[in-house]
Amino acid sequence: MLRRLSGGECNLSALAAPLKMTFPAATKHVRVLEGAKLVRRRVVGREHLCRLDAAPLKEAGTWTEQFRRFWEARFEVVDSILEEMKSDESTHRRSRP
Amino acid sequence: MNPTSKSDLQISTPTDLTLLLTRTFNAPRHLVWEAMFTPEKMRRWMLPPPGFTMTTCECDARQGGLLKIQWKSAEADPAMTLNGVFTEVVPLERAVHTEEFALPSGQVVSTQVEAHEFFEKNGVTQMRITQTFETKAARDEGLGAGEGMEAGYRKLDELLAS
User: Fold this and answer.
1) Quick one: fold of A2-56?
2) Which residues of B touch A33 (CB under 8 A)?
3) Please, which of B101, B126, B127, B162 could form a disulfide with B110 given CB 3.0 to 4.6 Å?
4) How far apart are CA B48 and CA B44, in angstroms?
5) Predicted TM-score (pTM) of this structure
6) In chain A, what are the domain boundaries?
């Protein structure tokens, strides 16, 4: 639903249809998203127009930044493994006759 | 890089289907190669996504060699299996392997090709990892690895389902 909304403001029925949801089920979903302050809704005539309010998601950190942190954490472990391997190698070199 | 120096990790998207990671390590190439492809070392650096623990790690970085990694979660063991084959290996320089992530049911949820290249200069090694996905959507989901956007969506889905 959020993915669809990332394309722009969308009417609730249009939002529900591809997800094979009934109108009441879609309304329930949107209420939860509204509660989480991720979606804003306005009523124009009989239409319920929903739009993404992405600010809270941005606060949580962008996806690329999290991907970066995930890999950097791994590479920092590789750094420490490499330090151990280097000191092992020099120990072996010194102990060689 | 030693722990006190700043990491030079760079992440880019050269094409719609690829992700490129480059990172410099303060060590000669043969050690970086060994750290990346030896199961005993991989078990240490291949930090699992939250809630997962690695149970199996097999890696034979030779032409035609196999890669197999399994993780368990509180709900399932294995919860996820990664199977791969090394399709191209030039020792210490370049290794390309396939990667298939499968659920316990055997259903494959993600397929990609990962190429590692190593360049050494004055005892410092630059590693480039190019991940190639089948679709742009899969690539974008790949960017969400770890606890990214996709995990966020999944949590929302759970919240909504309850």
Assistant:
1) Arc Repressor Mutant, subunit A (1.10.10)
2) 156, 160
3) B101
4) 10
5) 0.69
6) 2-56, 61-95
